[in-house]
Amino acid sequence: xxxxxxxxxxxxxxxxxxxxxxxxxxxxxxxxxxxxxxxxxxxxxxxxxxxxxxxxxxxxxxxxxxxxxxxxxxxxxxxxxxxxxxxxxxxxxxxxxxxxxxxxxxxxxxxxxxxxxxxxxxxxxxxxxxxxxxxxxxxxxxxxxxxxxxxxxxxxxxxxxxxxxxxxxxxxxxxxxxxxxxxxxxxxxxxxxxxxxxxxxxxxxxxxxxxxxxxxxxxxxxxx
Length: 224
Ligand SMILES: C[S@@+](CC[C@H](N)C(=O)[O-])C[C@H]1O[C@@H](n2cnc3c(N)ncnc32)[C@H](O)[C@@H]1O
Known about the structure:
The chain has helices spanning 8-16, 23-33, 51-60, 94-106, 136-157, 174-182, 219-223, and strands spanning 41-45, 65-70, 82-86, 121-126, 158-169, 185-191, 202-210. With 224 residues, the protein is α/β, with parallel strands linked by helices. The protein has one domain (8-211): Rossmann fold (3-Layer(aba) Sandwich), CATH 3.40.50. The protein has a seven-stranded mixed β-sheet with strand order 3-2-1-4-5-7-6, sandwiched between helices. α5 links the parallel β4 and β5. S-adenosylmethionine (SAM) binds at residues 19-20, 22-23, 46-52, 69-72, 88-90, 127-130, 146. S-adenosylmethionine is lined by residues 19-20, 22-23, 46-52, 69-72, 88-90, 127-130, 146.
């Protein structure tokens, strides 16, 4: 499938000075579901070149925090307190993220970086995508693998009631992944924002209402 790379979202991103057209996908989810608010603390996985970082920094404001990670450097300097680091999600631990969050909040690392004070964030959002091979099933499986890492971090970092956003390539593992996410969140749905390119198999998972502990639905919920 070919597409016009300079489509209206690409042009709009240039005009709005966003690093990528991807921002309009997140903006649409926010517009529909009222996700992002002043003061929130958000972890952004696969943040480069940085349009989500820019958008999130604007939304959470000076009292919030935005921390992005990517294997590639971002191309933006988002308004503080928002920042990014180069890291591979497969090697990222919740302790490392907590140390970075503490450092971002306090301007210096925690006294013991191996044991940073525990804190929770409002959301983990992940636009991570593997390098595409063109082999549909392989690309889809690698996308689920990446987002499983995002889910692992979200499990440790997101506070009860918080949310999780993850990009997936729809395919045979998608339903299984959504099922796994439902162990941790009261609600999980797949959405296709308007800015998604025509013919793309990309969908966004939005999971809301993080449960207090892993997979522990309340007795009432379990009976439903
Ligand atoms: C579609 S781009 C993200 C665009 C970004 N949300 C924005 O608004 O600018 C997908 C990103 O996932 C990143 N990525 C892929 N594998 C990764 C990994 N193992 N760890 C961290 N980031 C990864 C890529 O480097 C790429 O920058």
